């Protein structure tokens, strides 16, 4: 069954030299504006239960598309049909009156969404509890921090159990425990078969959550399909800036400690027992070990640990995570724990690489904490082998197996 | 062929007027809960942070009335002929005038004032032009009813409520028109206080119509507010009123219903981008 249907939907933004020219144009039908196209004609059908991610560079038309579907923008051409109740979270604090209290804004927001006051009465306690703002609900929202604003907005938008949820860069809002809670609610909607649309720069989250991905560029649909295929193509398009292989992609300082539900307490990278932030690694010979310590909320399921190794151009060369490898981490009663990941005879070839470590939820989707550039690896090699990785391989000569001659390539059967 | 176009035009204007007549009431009915919240907040917000709080809601118009009374009765020693005392005549017209000027003035900026509510959300924009009138009506009607009750008896208090309600309905097309014009024609906000002042001076509120020089009296015929005030004075104090005093404002109201509603409706898709 169709949840959202777009038929040749286009959006052009108009600009006028003077605001009154808008009215003059409306009255006289005389063109007074210049316009630029944010979204070229687009036809799209999204079925109920689909989780659709929208990727694209800035100015690609992602937010415009979401606003058109949410109904905050009117299309310049085409038809949009949305079946079911829509909730949209498009901007921090959008739809709130700064002078109104949190309580009044709950009723205001819910009223705009078409909920009766009786229904809001029933939902109110749940909204307040979810937002965790009990003692602040009678204060004007202009006194709230941006995090509190977002928590309330998210709680209101999602409280009414919408059929279609639209999120613009707000997949998990706030920080710490609330980020996890909001993320779980979104996943809950996904599991309940609701339709979700969101745009994100985090290709990792897009690939992990979505059942379908749209790639927009300069207002045109470039690709529409399976997440792995679209994300991979988009990452390739991004070139050096790609982050399609498992990195939450926000730039971060060298060490960012998350709060509330999980944080990394230790990341030590060793090359043949030598620990450091800048290590020289001999390709095919050095054993690389990454020791990770973490602290987490014992009430939550054990977290997962992920690692990426990126090249100097930003490309993720490889990644590994406990969730992907099916490993459940055992923790101490206080929620702390350590894991160690080894790369025997480090197979990457010469070049500079970075080690990045992530602490994620048990599903490996929601990010608690990360340390990017935990260590820099300078890989040297003896031979002239080209590329980034030395793959395990087997030669045969005249039908008979041949011994390896290169010291960097052991005679290992390809798995 | 030549006869068809005017008929079509007339029927289109009729449809516009019908839409403009029903539209605001439909919005009122459909969005009553949202309007209730906004009006309540609007009224609270006006006096928040003050020591006297809601008392200012009564004190503000009262002080304005006192200031004019002081000028006209004590300084200028204005006396009017007839059975109605000047202060009674003055209060009967001045309080509705304060309501009118407050409502129209706020309508000009209401779309900008509440832009945070609708800029990035789905919001029924047609609610907003009704807000200044509704909150103004809620503030001024009790004061007006109480004042008229004191001056002319309990019957006048009931009449005052009916008159203010009628005035609110009469102002609706002007509210929609000014809201959309204020959003796109910013100069209007600068010029409007002067326009309101001129309207006040050209409307027999601070004086009786008979006190105007003969050459200016014809201006009263083209000033619908003069007719409205004549109707108010007639209902409360039994002063003479003509059929023209009813017909002119009603005609203007009818003629403006459609264009105001349609202009707002057509401008609506551009409002978010304009603010």
TrEMBL record, chain A:
<dbReference type="InterPro" id="IPR050683">
    <property type="entry name" value="Bact_Polysacc_Export_ATP-bd"/>
</dbReference>
<dbReference type="InterPro" id="IPR029439">
    <property type="entry name" value="Wzt_C"/>
</dbReference>
<dbReference type="InterPro" id="IPR027417">
    <property type="entry name" value="P-loop_NTPase"/>
</dbReference>
<dbReference type="InterPro" id="IPR003593">
    <property type="entry name" value="AAA+_ATPase"/>
</dbReference>
<dbReference type="InterPro" id="IPR003439">
    <property type="entry name" value="ABC_transporter-like_ATP-bd"/>
</dbReference>
<protein>
    <submittedName>
        <fullName>Lipopolysaccharide transport system ATP-binding protein</fullName>
    </submittedName>
</protein>
<keyword id="KW-0813">Transport</keyword>
<dbReference type="GO" id="GO:0005524">
    <property type="term" value="F:ATP binding"/>
</dbReference>
<keyword id="KW-0547">Nucleotide-binding</keyword>
<dbReference type="Pfam" id="PF00005">
    <property type="entry name" value="ABC_tran"/>
</dbReference>
<keyword id="KW-0067">ATP-binding</keyword>
<feature type="domain" description="ABC transporter">
    <location>
        <begin position="4"/>
        <end position="243"/>
    </location>
</feature>
<dbReference type="Pfam" id="PF14524">
    <property type="entry name" value="Wzt_C"/>
</dbReference>
<dbReference type="GO" id="GO:0016887">
    <property type="term" value="F:ATP hydrolysis activity"/>
</dbReference>
<comment type="similarity">
    <text>Belongs to the ABC transporter superfamily.</text>
</comment>
<dbReference type="GO" id="GO:0140359">
    <property type="term" value="F:ABC-type transporter activity"/>
</dbReference>
<dbReference type="GO" id="GO:0016020">
    <property type="term" value="C:membrane"/>
</dbReference>
<dbReference type="InterPro" id="IPR015860">
    <property type="entry name" value="ABC_transpr_TagH-like"/>
</dbReference>
TrEMBL record, chain B:
<feature type="transmembrane region" description="Helical">
    <location>
        <begin position="12"/>
        <end position="29"/>
    </location>
</feature>
<feature type="transmembrane region" description="Helical">
    <location>
        <begin position="157"/>
        <end position="179"/>
    </location>
</feature>
<feature type="transmembrane region" description="Helical">
    <location>
        <begin position="50"/>
        <end position="72"/>
    </location>
</feature>
<keyword id="KW-0813">Transport</keyword>
<dbReference type="GO" id="GO:0015920">
    <property type="term" value="P:lipopolysaccharide transport"/>
</dbReference>
<feature type="transmembrane region" description="Helical">
    <location>
        <begin position="191"/>
        <end position="209"/>
    </location>
</feature>
<feature type="transmembrane region" description="Helical">
    <location>
        <begin position="84"/>
        <end position="104"/>
    </location>
</feature>
<feature type="transmembrane region" description="Helical">
    <location>
        <begin position="125"/>
        <end position="145"/>
    </location>
</feature>
<keyword id="KW-0812">Transmembrane</keyword>
<comment type="similarity">
    <text>Belongs to the ABC-2 integral membrane protein family.</text>
</comment>
<feature type="transmembrane region" description="Helical">
    <location>
        <begin position="246"/>
        <end position="264"/>
    </location>
</feature>
<keyword id="KW-0472">Membrane</keyword>
<protein>
    <submittedName>
        <fullName>Efflux ABC-transporter, permease protein</fullName>
    </submittedName>
</protein>
<keyword id="KW-1133">Transmembrane helix</keyword>
């Amino acid at each position: 069954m169709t949840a959202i249907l777009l038929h040749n939907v286009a959006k052009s933004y108009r600009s006028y030299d003077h605001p009154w020219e808008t009215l003059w144009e409306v009255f006289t039908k005389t063109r007074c504006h210049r316009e630029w196209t944010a979204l070229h004609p687009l036809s799209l059908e999204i079925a109920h239960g689909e989780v659709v991610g929208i990727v694209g560079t800035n100015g690609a038309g992602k937010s415009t598309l979401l606003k058109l579907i949410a109904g905050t923008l009117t299309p310049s051409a085409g038809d949009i049909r949305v079946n079911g109740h829509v909730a949209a979270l498009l901007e921090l604090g959008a739809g709130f009156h700064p002078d109104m209290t949190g309580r009044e804004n709950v009723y205001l927001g819910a009223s705009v969404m078409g909920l009766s006051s009786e229904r809001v009465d029933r939902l109110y306690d749940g909204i307040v509890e979810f937002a965790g703002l009990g003692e602040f609900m009678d204060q004007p929202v202009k006194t709230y921090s941006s995090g509190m604003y977002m928590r309330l907005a998210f709680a209101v938008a999602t409280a009414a159990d919408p059929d279609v949820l639209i999120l613009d860069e707000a997949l998990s809002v706030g920080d710490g425990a609330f980020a996890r809670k909001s993320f779980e609610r979104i996943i809950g909607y996904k599991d309940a078969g609701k339709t979700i649309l969101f745009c994100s720069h985090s290709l990792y989250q897009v690939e992990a959550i979505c059942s379908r991905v749209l790639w927009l560029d300069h207002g045109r649909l470039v690709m529409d399909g399976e997440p792995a295929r679209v994300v991979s193509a988009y990452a390739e398009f991004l070139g050096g800036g790609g982050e399609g292989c498992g990195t939450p992609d926000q730039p971060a300082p060298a060490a960012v400690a998350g709060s509330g539900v999980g944080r990394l307490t230790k990341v030590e990278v060793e090359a043949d027992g030598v620990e450091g932030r800048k290590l020289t690694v001999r390709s095919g010979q050095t054993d690389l070990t990454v020791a990770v310590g973490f602290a987490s909320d014992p009430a939550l399921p054990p977290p997962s640990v992920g690692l990426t190794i990126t090249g100097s151009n930003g490309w993720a060369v490889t990644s590994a995570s406990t969730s992907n490898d099916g490993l459940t981490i055992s923790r101490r009663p206080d929620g702390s724990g350590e894991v160690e990941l080894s790369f025997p005879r480090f197979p990457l070839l010469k070049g500079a690489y970075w080690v990045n470590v992530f602490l994620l939820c048990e599903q490996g989707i929601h990010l608690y904490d990360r340390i990017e550039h935990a260590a820099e690896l300078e890989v040297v090699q003896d031979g002239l082998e080209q590329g980034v990785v030395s793959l395990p391989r087997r030669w045969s000569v005249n039908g008979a197996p041949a011994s390896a001659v290169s010291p960097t390539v052991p005679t290992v059967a390809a798995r | 062929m030549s006869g068809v176009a005017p008929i079509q035009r007339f029927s289109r204007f009729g449809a516009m007027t019908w839409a403009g007549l029903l539209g605001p009431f439909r919005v009122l009915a459909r969005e009553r809960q949202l309007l209730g919240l906004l009006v309540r907040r609007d009224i609270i917000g006006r006096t928040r942070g003050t020591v006297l709080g809601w008392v200012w809601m009564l004190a503000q118009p009262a002080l304005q009335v006192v200031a004019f009374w002081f000028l006209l009765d004590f300084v200028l020693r204005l006396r009017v002929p007839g059975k109605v005392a000047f202060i009674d005549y003055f209060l009967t017209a001045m309080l509705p005038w304060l309501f009118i000027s407050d409502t129209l003035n706020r309508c000009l900026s209401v779309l900008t004032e509440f832009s945070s509510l609708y800029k990035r959300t789905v919001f029924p924009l047609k609610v907003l032009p009704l807000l200044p009138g509704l909150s103004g009506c809620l503030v001024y009607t009790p004061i007006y009813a109480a004042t008229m009750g004191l001056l002319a008896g309990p019957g006048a208090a009931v009449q005052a409520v009916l008159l203010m309600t009628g005035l609110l309905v009469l102002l609706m097309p002007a509210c929609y028109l000014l809201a959309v014009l204020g959003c796109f024609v910013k100069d209007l906000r600068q010029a409007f206080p002067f326009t309101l002042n001129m309207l006040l001076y050209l409307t027999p509120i601070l004086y009786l119509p008979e006190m105007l020089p003969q050459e200016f009296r014809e201006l009263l015929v083209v000033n619908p507010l003069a007719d409205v005030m004549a109707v108010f004075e007639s209902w409360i104090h039994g002063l003479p009123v003509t059929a023209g005093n009813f017909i002119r404002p009603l005609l203007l109201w009818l003629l403006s219903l459609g264009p105001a509603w349609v202009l707002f409706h057509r401008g609506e898709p551009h409002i978010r981008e304009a603010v």
